Amino acid sequence: MSRFMHRIFPFRRDEKIRYFVEMCMSIKKVWVEDTCTACGLCEEICPEVFKVNGISSVKKGVNFKQYEDAIKEAAESCPVEAIKFE
Ligand code: SF4
Q1: Under CATH, which number does the domain 27-85 receive?
Q2: What are phi and psi of 46, to 5 degrees?
Q3: Which of 21, 30, 33, 85 stands the most exposed, by the fewest C-beta atoms within 10 Å?
Q4: Which residue has the CA at smallest separation from atom 2 of ligand 1?
Q5: Hey, where are the domains in the chain?
Q6: Alpha-carbon torsion (9, 14, 20, 23), positive or negative
Q7: What is the pLDDT along the chain (86 residues), one digit of tens a residue?
């Protein structure tokens, strides 16, 4: 790594790698497609993020990083694969 990069990002190499991996892997956006059948499973798994009221929706102002495992579990558990994230 160049001296310039070390000046603007003065961490050890393994810390830099971990930082970039976390930046790339963290969930930044979650949404529910209109194939949702309102079964309520996602709200049961992660009520901090999902609210089912007629159809499931994602609550506003949630820090997705805090609930990544639960979001992924909800997406994997959704019977119609309506939960998407990136
Ligand atoms: S688990 Fe899927 S189908 Fe069930 S309420 Fe949530 S988004 Fe809708």
Answers
A1: 3.30.70.20
A2: -140, 75
A3: 21
A4: 78
A5: 27-85
A6: negative
A7: 577 777 777 777 777 777 666 666 789 999 999 999 999 999 999 999 999 999 999 999 999 999 999 999 999 999 999 999 99
Tell me the Cα Rg of the chain. Answer: 17
* pTM of the full structure: 0.77
| Residue tagged 């059948």 (tokens) | 37
Q: Atom of ligand 1 at shortest distance to CA of 39?
A: 4
Contacts for 5 with CB less than 8 Å, ≥ 6 apart: none
- C-alpha 24 – ligand 1 centre gap (Å): 26
